[in-house]
Amino acid sequence: MLEIEAVVSLLEVFRRLHHHATVPQAFVVPAEDPWPQELHGDRFGRRIWYLRSLKDKLPPAQVEQLDNAGMVWSDEEYQVGRIERGLTTYKAMYGDVRIPSRFVVPHDDGRWDRDLWDMKLGNAVHRIRSGGAYEAHRSRFEALGLTFDRWNEPQYPFALVRQALETFHAQHGHYKVPLTYVVGADDAAYAAEVRGMKLGHIVQSIIHEERYAEHRGELEAMGVPLKPRRELMVDRICEAVRCYRRVYGEGSDILYSYVVPEGSSAYPRELWGLRLGQTVYDIRKRGCYEDYRDRFEAVGLTVDDERSVSDHQLMKEKVSVVTMLLPVFRQLYHHANVPTAFVVPSQDPWPQELHGNRLGMRISYFRLLKDRLPPAQVEQLDNAGMVWSDEEYQVGRIERGLTTYKAMYGDVRIPSRFVVPHDDGRWDRDLWDMKLGNAVHRIRSGGAYEAHRSRFEALGLTFDRWNEPQYPFALVRQALETFHAQHGHYKVPLTYVVGADDAAYAAEVRGMKLGQIIHQIIHDELYAEHRGELEAMGVPLKPRRELMVDRICEAVRCYRRVYGEGRDIPIAYVVPEGSSAYPRELWGLRLGAAVYRIRKGGYYKDYRDRFEAVGLDIKKER
Hints:
Elements (H helix, E strand, L loop, with lengths): L3 H15 L25 H10 L6 H9 L6 H20 L26 H10 L7 H5 L15 H15 L26 H9 L8 H7 L6 H20 L27 H10 L7 H6 L12 H23 L25 H11 L5 H9 L6 H20 L26 H10 L7 H5 L15 H15 L26 H9 L8 H7 L6 H20 L27 H10 L7 H6 L9
Helix pairs in contact: 13-15
């Protein structure tokens, strides 16, 4: 057992660095200042957990010592105390504890205790009220004003709602908040307390007098429109028709595809993006807003206009729009597989009159209708590069990717994390950044594109994976050479995986489970024909158990040279990182724990002679 004084010393360092004393169970003392050097590598978190379980058995003097150092005996009591302090601070700032579920205590805000910074207080309150967390402490939360009947209570103080509306107005120039509008979780224009607020829903509930009824007059005085949304929509349509007439003249009709352009000075800002052509079509053909007919005709919109497009004319117009937009999409993205959610941006080089057009939905619609479209329209779309089947397009991309990879590496053993490099002219432009390894993995393991299996097999892709290396040997060798350049040896740990973002390694080997591959080579499961080549490089191909015994013996020899023959090895001793007294591959070895297990647990008993040969007395009483 580590001395209580050492635990107290470590607690003081932990509190100074982390501003609290609730030590995670997995915490290990780092090998750096200001931690005491003799305790580097100590499993401090497990030691704290062990002391908690022994609290009733410890002498009162030691309990008092630990209390004075800030020992946290109960994680639950600590967390409840933090929530109480958080509620108290929030209430002092906003007058109540109606805390948004996404509220996070701001960082570097001196109004909050330091150990509360970045705390997800809203989430904690949500779990208390909805999930029954800390039920035994309910009365403590109620004493601070937290209520558990949530259905008729506003989630936010009115002051925060007003603040969010003012920010919305500053951004958009009006208070006409869309029903679906949610304040962005990362939108720095808004105060942290209102990020994630469903502002559109809140305004809707105010319109229907479900929330904040006592503040309705204040909101109307600000200019917040509290009419029902149907009436507001009619107001927008009428105003948009007036503006359209001023721009294009009284005699011109409104095209189905017309969308009010973003940034147009001819329209008020709140009308930008309105799908005016589609709305007018719905009014005329589908009877939408029938009870407002007089208002539409008062602004010059003839509901029964004979010029209203027929379904045949409408389809021709839709095809024409797509054939105009697809070449622009291909120019920008180097392919024509338009995502369903794609909307034409309000910027060059897109045609201004089609800004806001839902091109992705239109493409999906034509795919469904292909067999019913006139051959001339199908030909028009084909000439524009229309992709009729997403599956066929994706299979074609994978085929091209396999062909290129095979030309570069000689086979199609593609690592599961392989991503086609960006800006690499050897690959087709529309393949850049493609997760080709993942696609191949899904084909071989998940049955993706099963109907096209013969096409993949023709390129050399096999479906019997168990005895086949995942990587060409050239890539494994390349990864080993990079490991050696970084670490100075080839002793790759079993769990070693090449980092997904490790720029020292080639992109093709990032994510490679190099430790497991070496383990399989050691046991003659992979690359048996290259074993001699690896041994000539210096790669140790002994079983890992023997390698571990080699490491322990070498570490004991080094320890003896540093501390003398007579000194025993403490259980907490870890080979120091950066020590010139030890080879680099021994840094971080828990030598004290290893020696303890050899003596007490009978580990490596078939290597007893080797340990005694380096001066390690197996029977020594400690």
